[in-house]
Amino acid sequence: MVTRQDINPGDQCAQTVHSISDFAYEFPQEHRFWKETSNTVVCLGIQSEFHLLTLFDKLSPLTQCVKFFEPDDDVGWTSLCFYSTPETKKLTSKLPLLLKTKTTK
Asked: Would the pTM count as exceeding 0.85?
């Protein structure tokens, strides 16, 4: 999953869950296969809605992918969920983990 970092952390969690739910609804067979064979979850962050939609446009031709629009908070497209492949990993490998903060010593 990839979720916008320009929304508050609580909403980042909720939006990620929404996109997972939408993926399971839209692609039940792929979701079941993932659950039975991998069950690995990685939550990544992305700067903005623009960057999220740009990534969606790159991922969607390569794999099953859904994007979630938040109707209640007027924040637009907030998160996407996709079935990971070697090709999608290349596109997302530079994204940070969601909610990861930089620590200083």
From this structure: yes
> Each residue of 69-95: pLDDT tens digit?
998 888 999 999 999 999 999 999 999
Can you tell me the distance from the alpha carbon of 73 to that of 79, in angstroms, rounded to the nearest whole number?
Answer: 14
Closest residue by Cα to residue 17 from 71, 79, 83: 79
Q: What is the pLDDT of residues 4-15, one digit of tens each?
A: 999 999 999 999
Domain interval for residue 60 = 2-92
Count: domains in the chain: 1
Q: In sequence order, what are the residues at sequence separation of 6 or more whose Cβ sits closer than 8 angstroms to the Cβ of residue 91?
A: 55, 58, 59, 62
Is 28 a member of any domain? yes
Q: Sort strands 44-46 and 65-70 into parallel, antiparallel or unpaired.
A: unpaired
Burial class (CB in 10 A: 0-12, 13-18, 19+), 15: buried
